[in-house]
Amino acid sequence: LIGRLMFELPEEMGLIAVAVRQTQGKGRGGNVWLSPVGCALSTLHISIPLHSNLGQRIPFIQHLVSLAVVEAVRSIPGYEDIELRVKWPNDIYYSDLMKLGGVLVNSTLIETTFHILIGFGFNVNNSNPTICINDLIAKFNKEEGTELKPLSADCLIARTVTVLERLIEVFQEKGPNGVLPQYYKYWIHSSLRCSGKQVRLRDEQGPLAWIVGIDDYGYLQVHEEGRGVESVHPDGNSFDMLRNLIVPK
């Protein structure tokens, strides 16, 4: 629907579709994505000039959206310690334990403008199939003796889009260095248990490498002993959290 409408509307007009339930969603690599009632589900259209900081680093958009989702919750007074984190390249996690959301970005370049369709979804009020944000809030209340209220999907979609707009403005003005400190604050590999995390390259007997960060174009940087730092592209590799593997597809 948005793919048809986005070229019909005035350039200054924003466009977003919000779903209550998703039965034919698409993930990376052609994966099918099903989302029950209780998820925050939407697709957002934005336009990015090719000759801009972000236009020259389009892969960064998925990182900005993931960060915006986490910030949408953790920037609310009282909710700063709800343990939401971002995982490269496009996932939202509870600590380093469980995935509760993701981002998928499609871009089309027409003349000198990128038309970006951003699909994002995360569990807000549905405990299954994994865990949801309101579960984390209830857990936090029990452990800390607080009385934080549950959040709604509508509220968090609105906050995510607002935060994303601010992050894009900062990126366009200052480039990657304007947002990376904030990204690393919530990056899954910046947590105490994941700091300096080792991974295997290619297979379970492959060489050891250490996750370093992300480069100026949004690709993962790993340090392989004897070979220095190299970038790993998300469209050619999958990062297997369970087996600590970076595997070329």
From TrEMBL:
<dbReference type="GO" id="GO:0005737">
    <property type="term" value="C:cytoplasm"/>
</dbReference>
<dbReference type="InterPro" id="IPR004143">
    <property type="entry name" value="BPL_LPL_catalytic"/>
</dbReference>
<keyword id="KW-0436">Ligase</keyword>
<dbReference type="InterPro" id="IPR004408">
    <property type="entry name" value="Biotin_CoA_COase_ligase"/>
</dbReference>
<dbReference type="InterPro" id="IPR003142">
    <property type="entry name" value="BPL_C"/>
</dbReference>
<feature type="domain" description="BPL/LPL catalytic">
    <location>
        <begin position="1"/>
        <end position="172"/>
    </location>
</feature>
<protein>
    <submittedName>
        <fullName>BPL1 ligase</fullName>
    </submittedName>
</protein>
<dbReference type="Pfam" id="PF02237">
    <property type="entry name" value="BPL_C"/>
</dbReference>
<dbReference type="InterPro" id="IPR045864">
    <property type="entry name" value="aa-tRNA-synth_II/BPL/LPL"/>
</dbReference>
<dbReference type="Pfam" id="PF03099">
    <property type="entry name" value="BPL_LplA_LipB"/>
</dbReference>
<comment type="similarity">
    <text>Belongs to the biotin--protein ligase family.</text>
</comment>
<dbReference type="GO" id="GO:0004077">
    <property type="term" value="F:biotin--[biotin carboxyl-carrier protein] ligase activity"/>
</dbReference>
